[in-house]
Specification:
single chain, 3 helices, Rossmann fold, alpha/beta
């Protein structure tokens, strides 16, 4: 199953991404990197052996979020 995680580069989000990947899901991450960095996703990829699709998007940007959904369909 493909799952969208908002805030996926933060502490809770990155742990959620790892758990979902370990359970066999494809993960798409949206985060604006205000309080985090892509480094957390690199570490998750090292642990899980899988890379999450990442979009540097702010959820208040409706057009950008729509592009994420279109790209991830």
């Amino acid at each position: 199953m493909k799952i969208l995680v908002t805030g996926g580069t933060g502490y809770i989000g990155s742990h959620t991404v790892l758990s979902l990947q370990e359970a066999g899901h494809d993960v798409v991450v949206i985060d604006n990197l205000v309080n985090s960095s892509e480094e957390s996703l690199r570490r998750v990829a090292e642990l899980s052996g899988k890379t999450a699709k990442f979009h540097n998007v702010d959820l208040v940007d409706e057009a950008a979020v729509e592009r994420v959904f279109a790209d991830s369909a």
